[in-house]
Amino acid sequence: EAGVAQSPRYKIIEKRQSVAFWCNPISGHATLYWYQQILGQGPKLLIQFQNNGVVDDSQLPKDRFSAERLKGVDSTLKIQPAKLEDSAVYLCASTPPGGNTEAFFGQGTRLTVV
Amino acid sequence: AQSVSQHNHHVILSEAASLELGCNYSYGGTVNLFWYVQYPGQHLQLLLKYFSGDPLVKGIKGFEAEFIKSKFSFNLRKPSVQWSDTAEYFCAVNARDTDKLIFGTGTRLQVFP
């Protein structure tokens, strides 16, 4: 079975620019998560979708970050404008419906803001 | 609110020493518990998981963890570490009713030969 796909793998932008990341979860997986992992820290949950609805976005900096999951499949995470402190790996993960299973992670997108 | 604490931020051991990394969580409902490992420059890899049943779970590479419900703990253990275990270890908690999955801040393990 195909895994969680993310693109791009790497991105370098200047501060104040905008950037978008894309995630394609495993087919049939209802829950999709976006995490931000700053170097040396644990993954921080930014937003959780259940199908195309937002379940939790309490840690998403909504003044600059936005995410959507149209049609309950693919998802995009956008940062506009980017700040230096947004440099991190952005991880996407998904889980199937029914619970009692681990999350499956994508390779991540490493963002460097200069 | 759901939270995860990892008290050991940095652990340094010699090869063959025993390892125990602490993980405590806070949540009022039923949870699934996980330990992930991240080797230098690599991605998260699942070490082991607990959903229900025997509270002592065994994972890959000789790791095991014990769920103690009364203490809200899920400590990771290995009887004899190797240099190749040098990595960052993350405890994670998934709340079954919301499916929210959060991670601890991680423990950096360095093993010297």
Question: What this model shows, in words?
Answer:
- The complex is a heterodimer of chains A (114) and B (113).
- Chain A is mainly beta.
- Helices cover 0% and strands 48% of the residues of chain A.
- Chain A has strands at 5-7, 10-13, 19-24, 31-37, 44-50, 53-56, 65-68, 75-79, 88-95, 104-105, 109-113.
- In chain A, strand 9 and strand 10 (104-105) form a beta hairpin.
- Chain B has no helices and 12 strands.
- Chain B starts with a strand and ends with a strand.
- The mean pLDDT of chain B is 95.
The oligomeric state of the chains shown is heterodimer
Helix content of chain B: under 10%
How many E strands of chain B? 12
The run of helices and strands of chain A is EEEEEEEEEEE
- Give the C-alpha Rg of chain A: 13 Å
Given helix and strand content, the structural type of chain A is mainly beta
How many DSSP E strands of chain A? 11
Poorly predicted spans of chain B: none
Radius of gyration of chain B from CA coordinates: 14 Å
Broad shape of chain B: globular
| Overall pLDDT metric of chain B | 95
Task: Tell me the helix content of chain A.
Answer: under 10%
Number of helices of chain B: 0
Greatest interface by residues involved:
A-B, 23 and 22 residues
